[in-house]
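Consider the following assembly input.
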Amino acid sequence: MTAALSPPQSLLERLPHEWEELFAGWGQPRYRARQVFAWIHQRGILEPQAMTDLPGPLRLRLAQEGLAPPLTVVADQVSSDGTRKLLVEMVDSQRVETVLIPRGSVAERDVYAPPQDDDGDSDDEPDPAATEAYSQCISSQVGCAMGCAFCASGIAGLKRQMTAGEIYAQVLLGRARLEGQRRQSGIVFMGMGEPLHNYPAVARVLELLRTAEGFGMSLRRVTVSTSGLIPELRQLAEDFGGRVRLAVSVHASDSASRSRIMPINRRYPLPDLLAALREYPVPGLGRITIEYTLLGGDNDSDGDALRLSEQLAGLPVKVNLIPVNPVPEAAFPAPSEARVASFQRILRARGLDTFVRRRKGDDIAAACGQLALHGEKRKVRVL
Ligand code: SAH
Ligand code: SF4
């Protein structure tokens, strides 16, 4: 199935058939389209002058028409746990961050209880043979309009959408930085921004990622994380038929509490969101991930755990608990270890596979929710 996409905004984000159409118009043979596509997506070369097997006039034309790297890396920090954060700048000087997270490390394991049998979801269990594998967390917007109370990304509201080319270029940069090691073993849309609030660009990135003659990553290895925009969730289901992994940020056990910490819940309330998830096709991916950020003394009681288990009953899900990471602008205390353990125990006792996501890279402010537009003041506006 191929998504009905809106037109490409730049040369970089063209799919193979779009290159062929363009090159037909330029009087270029079809195989040239394949060559350019391979340069970009297999080798990560975005400067036409470096595409050495193309004739000079074609290289010149590509440069004149604007083929060029859309991002430059302005900082590259490595955490003590191996997590690596790239600060990238776009041509209009806007900046976002992307994070490379080593997999299979002890830090990623569930430290509270041994994992239950799993369905092989790639983000649960470290693969012993994959110690050099990284998953890459990418941003999809500059800022975010959703204004969740505990998250640094939304502090200044939405600055602007990213184009598909800008979103995708993070993945090419990530691969280049991992030279000599494995490719990324997975891509997660868990950086700055709400991916379903930039759906046309995200859909195009998914197509680029999965194109076999290009980046060639199965969508089973790609996770779109959303705060729950129901119409776009349905569109994603229609366009990709459950082939892409889905993570849904729930963070509350009832709708009123959710509205308090996630303003988007006033537009798309929890019962409607859960009903949409019941309809979501899951053939290829097995299960939907429910993300639940534990805010100390707020949503981490045993009662919350019980109510959450009732809300999720019968859904094909697993639960990732994320003890809140400190964000200077939004001070929620971390939950105690005892609370986290109890919350997990209750969900498991109710038959829900539940994992605890350990903080990674927080010494370089690269953990969930810490990617920020630095120095901005909180401003909440939903859509
Ligand atoms: N906008 C999307 C994806 C980006 S956020 C979404 O909200 O799902 C990725 C995950 O990090 C979400 O589950 C989000 O709620 C969580 N998160 C945000 N701020 C956090 C914080 N301070 N500590 C822990 N997790 C946080
Ligand atoms: Fe946006 Fe997600 Fe942060 Fe909420 S948690 S403000 S949706 S990035």
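Residues 71-364 form a domain with the TIM Barrel fold (CATH 3.20.20.70). Ask yourself how this observation constrains the way the partners meet.
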